[in-house]
From TrEMBL:
Any Pfam family the entry gives: HTH_32
Protein name: Mos1 transposase HTH domain-containing protein
PANTHER family in alphabetical order: MARINER MOS1 TRANSPOSASE-LIKE PROTEIN (PTHR46060)
Source species, domain of life: Eukaryota
InterPro entries per the UniProt record, alphabetical: Transposase-MT_Hybrid (IPR052709)
Organism (species): Araneus ventricosus
Length: 110
């Protein structure tokens, strides 16, 4: 298969596994549910809770937020940077637009 399709083709073991599943009667391509800890969904309630904590104390750390809301530090980091658009300047959370303005001022005056 690599001669015909190149390096981006599927491995034989993957194709064989798919064929076994199809022959066993499985027609759905979605993964089956797995046991274990479910992911915490980043919903509007969690996002607003993080935003409220930051507005109350702009020097709060991601660890403190994670402990307060009982979510992971990675989830807090994702919410702060991707959903809310905050960044740290001088140990304070500020919106990203303020960071861009400050960088321009430093570049102009340097």
């Amino acid at each position: 298969m690599k001669e015909v399709y190149g390096e981006h083709c599927l491995a034989w073991c993957t194709i064989f596994r798919w064929c076994q599943r199809y022959e066993a009667g499985r027609l759905d391509i979605k993964d089956l549910p797995r046991t274990g800890k479910a992911h915490v969904v980043t919903n509007s309630v969690t996002i607003s809770a993080v935003d409220e904590l930051i507005r109350q104390n702009s020097r709060i750390t991601t660890r403190e937020i994670a402990v307060e809301l009982s979510i992971s530090k990675g989830t807090v980091h994702h919410i702060i940077h991707k959903k809310l658009g905050y960044g740290k300047i001088c140990a304070q959370w500020v919106p990203s637009i303020c960071q861009r303005i400050r960088r321009r001022r430093e570049w102009v005056f340097a």
